[in-house]
Amino acid sequence: MQQTEPSPGLPGDLPAVSAYGLQVIRGSQTVLANVTFTIPRGCIVGLLGPSGCGKTTLLRSVVGVQQATAGHVQVLGHAAGAQQLKTRVGYVTQAPSVYADLTVLENLRYFAAALGMRGWRREDAVVRVVKEVDLADYADKLVARLSGGQYSRVSLAVALLNKPDLLVMDEPTVGLDPIVRRELWVVFQRLAAEGTALLISSHVMDEADRCDRLLLMRSGRLLASADRATLLGHTRCADVEEAFMHLVEASVAAEARARQRAAAQSLLPDLSGLLDQASAPDAERTFFATDARS
Ligand SMILES: Nc1ncnc2c1ncn2[C@@H]1O[C@H](COP(=O)(O)OP(=O)(O)OP(=O)(O)O)[C@@H](O)[C@H]1O
């Protein structure tokens, strides 16, 4: 993505998001374990992984509605969830967040008012976002009568009312046909070109091709944080799905070795050193790579 001038109030070298050692425990389950990554400004970052791996929990941590058990997340120079971020971070959840019994315009006016916008400022913002998501022809239609793709665009329009510096989206293209998905990605790419950082979760690996950087996740752990080309080069794989499977296999093998070592240590403390030497070292499990902009 092309870079633009940093937005006011944010020093140029600060990433939009930096998470360090993030851990979230829910009930007895460790949902996120030692997650570390950064998101440069003006960059589209895809968060990919199978259902239940912790993507929504990670997004909620970035938005500040999920309390971390350990580690920290900085967003635009503030702790995630800080009051100063309220108008600078947009969040599009998986569940519908707009009112089906209101029209597109009524929804947008309602949410703009809830954000404290009044008068011409509110109308300007509403007209701008309707154009941005290409919903002008449906502005007076009840949301209940829109298609899935149009419905998603209304949610996106709400998140854009404030011109956010960071837009966090939870599977925004799930269930949409390929043409609508492509149209939405055009909007995402335009926003990034204008300087917005986007963190987008998906379990569709082919969406990876549209992202500047990827976070690959499995069972609450990051397997990789890299741009696509570096990821493919590192794993020597032809596509992201294959690279993901390669990293999953490496991670499963590393876990099995760790279990073997622990078992050997408890049974034969004196021999466990030998086993350590015989097995390959568990190098850093997450593959991190930075591109020129991070
Ligand atoms: N309220 C909760 N209490 C306890 N555990 C939860 C809660 N919500 C989610 N989890 C668990 O946390 C794990 C991660 O859930 P999360 O929703 O973050 O995954 P996900 O990758 O976003 O899944 P999906 O792609 O299906 O939306 C899951 O194993 C889930 O069972």
From TrEMBL:
Native organism: Streptomyces rectiviolaceus
GO MF assignments: ATP binding
What's the protein here called? ABC transporter ATP-binding protein
**Keyword tags:** ATP-binding, Nucleotide-binding
UniProt cross-references to Pfam families, sorted A to Z: ABC_tran
Recorded hits in SMART domains, A to Z, give: AAA
Q: What is the lineage of its organism?
A: Bacteria, Bacillati, Actinomycetota, Actinomycetes, Kitasatosporales
Q: Which domain of life is it from?
A: Bacteria
> PROSITE patterns, from UniProt?
ABC_TRANSPORTER_2 (PS50893)
- SUPFAM superfamilies per record: P-loop containing nucleoside triphosphate hydrolases
The UniProt entry, under Gene3D superfamilies, shows: P-loop containing nucleotide triphosphate hydrolases
* Domain ABC transporter span(s) in chain numbering: 17-244
Q: Which InterPro entries match?
A: AAA+_ATPase (IPR003593), ABC_transporter-like_ATP-bd (IPR003439), P-loop_NTPase (IPR027417)
